[in-house]
Fold this protein.
Amino acid sequence: MVQRFLGELELFVLGATARLGAAAYGVSIRSEIKTRTGRDVSIGSLYATLAALRDKELVRFELSEPQPVQGGRARRMVRLTPSGRRTLEASLRAIHQLEEGFVLGTDA
Amino acid sequence: MTPPIRPPRLAEWIIERVAPPDDRPWILADLAEELTQRAATAGTVKARRWYWTHTARSVAPLIARRCRAALSVRRGDHMWHDLAQDIKFAARLSARAPLTTFVVVVTLVLGLGAMTSVFSVVDAVLVRPLPFNQSARTVQLFTVDHGNEETELAYPDLKEVGFTSRALELLGFGAGRQATFENAGEAERLQTVAIDSGFVRVVDLYASIGRMFVSSAYANGAAEEVVLTQGFWQRAFGGDPAIVGKSITIDGRPHSVVGILAAGAFIFPHASPDVVLPLRLAPGALFTQRGVRWAQAVARIRPGVSLDDVNRDLAGIAGRLASEFRHSNNSVGMRAKPLRDAVVGDVGSMLGLLSAAVAAVLLIASLNVGNLLLARAATRSREFAVRVAIGGSPWRVRRQILAEALLLAVIGGLLGLAIAPLLTRTLLALYPGDLPRASEIHVNWRTALGAVAGILLTSVLASIPAIRRAGSVQPALDLRSAMGTGQMPPAQRFGRFVFGAQIAASLTLIFVASLLVRTLREMNRIHPGFASGGLLTFLAAPSQQRYPIPAAYYERLNEAVQRVPGVLAVTSAWHIPFGENEHGDFFLREDKANSSRQSNVDAVQPGFDRVMGARVLAGRAFVAQDDSVSAPVAMINKTLATTAFAGEDPLGKLITFSRGQHRRIVGVIEDMKDGSLVDAAPSMLYIPVDQYPGEYAKWNRYVIIRTSRDPSATMIDVRAAVRAVDASVPLTDVRTMSDRLSTAVAAFRFRAALLAGLSALACLLALLGVYGVVAESVNRQTREIGIRLALGMPPGGAQRGVLVSALRTAGIGVIAGLLLSLAVASSLRSMLYGVVAHDAWSLLIAVATIAAAAMAAAFVPARRASRIDPIRALRSD
């Protein structure tokens, strides 16, 4: 398959998921993106992006055990698939390569 | 741990609507979780506000996501692959149930074919503008007489309009008549239309070869010119362009052919004449008498002037004429009507009825298609459940049903389009007489497109219940039991709806059909005022060259025909009831001032009343002694006696004709219907044909033959006798009187037959529909019925149960149908005769027919219900 790069929001969601590891689910991903990039992603956009990533088989969903409190609910956790990890790495690498020898704000 | 806060209900509801079902619980849970967190840090009010803004921001991306998922845009080429698969699968399914597929396709083919042809007719006759420039501004002018009846215009009145009207910019007139065309010793009667130069400009006539008339051709005494129509050119001259410039003989005089009329030219007042002649102004009554109304006038309205302005203008002119020419124009008005309405006449209401009937049949058909698709979806609910359970998207399942519906529609549509031209031609062939603008009727891309759009829409709509059924698959439930215990409310509800709606629609159609059939029966019972059986009639047209005084010819003809075996009596007249050659004139009562009156006039031979079988009510009929040297006499019919001589005895009264001729009324004869069986007989004045001098004596006459045998069997012998007198005289309009009467009710018969046919089709489709619905419900209840039978219910009970339930649904349909029928009935009044619109008998017939049909359709599955074997029913899933 041809290597595909990610859209901005997809990159953010995938990145946040990678950072959060086992703790990645809707609320935590949103707050991670907010903390790291300052962007307040709406929950609708987040779920739309997650569904798209799932269709591309870059993430998969897993149900957690219910939270150990009274009335605690099960969460739908988000996990990177191997191909998700590869795509994320490729995208990040591409950005780093673009960055090399490039000073923002000054002409060459 | 802070206690959870209840999220705003409305916001929650919105998210529930827009979120994809898979994500719905997780989104709501995330929102709730964050709401609680925020409430703990920022307070409840701010938290709730956050919830709202977040909901608002989420709506758009969620909807976008659902749309993308539905269209599978993300999956790109998958979509086409899936579609191909859907269609292949649909084709396989259809092939596996050939009978139902066949029924559906045939239904759709007939529906689409019927719809396309009716659309084509409606489009050509009612929708499209007349085919010439500025046709929207073109009107026809009428004289309106005492009875508010529209007739033609008198030439002097027409001239007055041309001189003084400020609302009209172009005025033209014409008249249709018959002429004899002689070619290589053979005589043929032609339909001609004579027009003036204004007419050519108003309706924008032009020649495709050669030219239209030069202006001098309209002058009396100039070289005579003729323009051939395409049809006559092809028929008589094989479409040879060399005929232009040559001379042909019409009415014994040479006419030079100057042009061939362009194909598709709009001509008028006769819809399909053979030749067009210039209307030449000649001295004589036609151009000088205000009472002689014969001109069909067309006019173009000035730009920016409304029809109302035109009518006000005409009313002013008519008013001036009425005060100036009291005895001819007293209380005579004038009126303009858009030419298209005038040409189309009252065909509009008929086409409306036809469209509605076809739409009703199509509705019934599409309900059947819908029900079939739904039944298939219901039996496949298990398959759908499996597909969804193993991860198939519900959208795929829905799309698959849609593909099935569309496949059927495409097959039905293509075949329907293929037969549409044939159906259109059949419809036109069935239509009695001339449908206005018939030559313009054909299936074109517009009507075909309209019909295709209709059929696609119908199939998509028809598949909605099935799609909804498939969309509401609940794997857990449907897998456990696809049939038997589980009730299927949507399917059942739709089935009931189909059942009821079909009953209602068919009932209405049957009601309308029976109204029309009863109308036809009533019309056939009308006594026309004379004995119509055993009469053979034709128009003989001796050439004026050979017979300067045609009376001699008719004398010889009478004698020759009289000798034919089976002929009882022969006579002749200008005009016969339901024939051509009408003539109108006006007269004055000499004993009364201002008594001008318009009437139809017929010149008849003595014996006319006896041969026709019409009773003389008072005075005497004409005798052989009423000839050109005896005192001029007249007979009037009952209508004229009561209108012109109300309460007085008309016998012996003197009248004066338009040309100053005095006549004494000697008899009153029974009214004879003319032109229409429904309308009252026109007022009629009879004059002995031998007492009509001058140019009128040269008019062609109808020969009327009373026979003792079947008149059509006598026809061959009569023709031989006529030929023996003079083979060069053409006979036209050769028909029995019964045939003429039957033509007069032909429009009614056409309507009745068409509606009867359509309602039979509707009834048949409804029968299929009802059968399908009831059979389906019996299938579904197999297990239930099995249990009840096992518990001791008698088999008859099962059957009764099914029938009672069917009867209940049918009852609702019947009530709806009755209401619909009563609503429709009032719009039918103009098509009925002798039957009231809310005719109880027709309603009863409709209810009885449809109830019997429904019961018959329900009976077969009901019987099956009584034969269910409890053991088998319980063992099967």
In short: The first helix of chain A runs from residue 8 to 20. Chain A touches chain B through 19 residues (CB under 8 Å). Chain A has a mean pLDDT of 83. The beta strands of chain A are 59-63, 76-80.
